[in-house]
Amino acid sequence: MVLLQLDPFLNELTIMFERSTETGSVWVTLKRSSLKSKAVRNKMGAAGEAIDYKCLIRATNGKKTISTSVGTKDHQRFQASYATILKAHMTALKKRERKDKKKSAEADKREGTSKRPKKS
Asked: Where do the record's region annotations for Disordered lie (predicted)?
């Protein structure tokens, strides 16, 4: 697995979403990572050095896997671009039907029924 730069990763992610519009899925995982082995992290911690953590992002459609690493400096720009891509390609989701609590409560009052039984 090769780490891509941010812009090529976003382009490949867009292509994955476009290919999977009719059938298929795309899974995206985010994980905190220092991109160093456990032994190196332990040595750095013992020496009192600060460990620079990054966000490791992987995306797969079952056949192809891409990944990138996002540091703290690029996080805001990446998050905005990533959100734009997600919003553009979530067209297959259905709207959730919500029940308005106020309207249902008013309808119950008009009918004379209440949810709580009356105390005698």
From this structure: 92-120
Pairing state of beta strands 54-60 and 3-4? Answer: unpaired
| Domain ranges across the chain | 2-90
Quick: pLDDT tens for 60-79: 999 999 999 998 899 999 99
**pTM exceeds 0.85, yes or no:** no
Q: Exposed/middle/buried for 34, CB within 10 Å: 0-12, 13-18, 19+?
A: middle
In CATH, which of 3.30.720.10, 3.40.630.10, 3.40.1010.20, 3.30.43.10 is domain 2-90? Answer: 3.30.720.10
- Residue 117 CB partners (closer than 8 Å, separation 6+): none
